[in-house]
Design a protein that fits this description.
Elements (H helix, E strand, L loop, with lengths): L6 H23 L13 E6 L5 H12 L3 E5 L12 H10 L4 E6 L4 H6 L5 E7 L5 H15 L8 E5 L6 H12 L3 E5 L15 E3 L11 E4 L15 H8 L3 H5 L6 E3 L22 H20 L6 H8 L1
Parallel strand pairs: 1-2, 1-3, 3-4, 5-6, 5-8, 6-7, 8-9
This protein binds N-carbamoyl-L-aspartate (NCD).
């Protein structure tokens, strides 16, 4: 698999292969020296034209643990500020001999456009409100790890909040349902989209009546930076109806788990401190981010493709 741009492009086989490969990467990460020569001689560029903490750092850590060279592109100190176009930027970096671009951009579809300008692999680290495939892989891996299951068959997952602006919701709905989960979207109608009617999900506008049914409660950030119109009449009312507080946590079933892709808006969708909740998988999501992104980079860049036997050779 040369590019990792969307869950749909990966398909069920691709998703399963990457999740299995992530388990090998987690084993490498558990060693006293978590570094292998698997991608020695390869160069990975992170091209983040939108803000990021965990996605960018976990990709850079992943690349280093596989011994790839890394380059970080910082918009604020680049020639983009002198008016250089994205195409010229990509072509310039390609001329330096890079093997993969990890791209985050505010426009949907940019990873496909960039792939026309370079022969390098493209890894989508979030394009507008469209896709965030590696976050979906991290989340599937984290659920598999928490529940000790291979697929998500028989699990009910509620995704709560700002579905409309969320690339995480789009990628996760695809990945969760592909692996057999039942998915419920919970949001005020203004934060849904017409297209959700065609998604393989149930739609609810009440959180309280949903809590007792779920294995995973997946909270989303309210993405104020993407809201052009007043979609939320009152932030306090949104927080009261859709925010996760201690009373709602208490109404979850035994064994149910709580997730959030980060960054969190405390006091909006989260009124509880996840570090103090035994149900929270939020720290596992961050930790697993490195293993899953190692799997993604390895399968896009290794000469042997996604073969785990190649990994065993280079990882020993
Ligand atoms: C998400 C993103 O950037 O799409 N965060 C992340 O990658 N961990 C979700 C968000 O910003 O709300």
């Amino acid at each position: 698999m040369k590019h990792v741009r969307s869950i749909g492009e990966l398909g069920l086989d691709g998703v399963r292969r990457l999740l299995d490969l992530s388990t090998h990467m987690a084993e490498i990460n558990s060693r006293p020296v978590p570094k292998v020569p698997a991608l020695r001689g390869r160069t990975v560029v992170s091209l983040f034209l939108e803000d990021s903490t965990r996605t960018r750092l976990s990709f850079e850590t992943a690349a280093k643990r596989l011994s790839a060279e890394t380059m970080t592109f910082s918009v604020s100190t680049s020639s983009v500020n002198k008016g250089e176009s994205l195409r010229d930027t990509i072509e310039t970096i390609t001329d330096m001999g890079v093997d993969a671009f990890v791209v985050r951009h505010k426009s949907s579809g940019i990873p496909w456009q960039i792939a026309k300008w370079t022969s390098a692999s493209i890894i989508n680290a979030g394009d507008g409100a469209h896709q965030h495939p590696t976050q979906a892989l991290v989340d599937c891996y984290t659920i598999r790890e928490a529940f000790g299951c291979a697929d998500l068959e028989g699990r009910t997952i509620a995704i709560v909040g700002d579905i409309r602006h969320s690339r995480v919701a789009r990628s996760n709905v695809e990945a969760f349902t592909m692996l057999g989960a039942r998915v419920i979207l919970v949001a005020p109608s203004t934060l849904l989209l017409d297209e959700v009617e065609h998604w393989p999900v149930e739609i609810r506008t009440e959180l309280d009546t949903t809590l007792g049914e779920v294995d995973v409660l997946y909270m989303l950030r309210l993405q104020s930076e993407r809201m052009s119109q007043g979609l939320i009449p009152h932030l306090g009312e949104y927080a009261t109806r859709f925010g996760l507080n201690a009373q709602r946590v208490a109404r979850l079933r035994n064994g149910a788990r709580i997730m959030h892709p980060g960054p969190m808006n405390r006091g909006v969708e989260m009124h509880v401190d996840p570090s103090e909740l035994e149900q929270s998988l939020i720290h596992r999501q961050v930790a697993n981010g490195v293993s899953v992104r190692m799997a993604v980079l390895f399968s896009a860049l290794s000469a042997g493709g996604e073969s785990t036997s190649v990994l065993k050779e280079v990882a020993s």
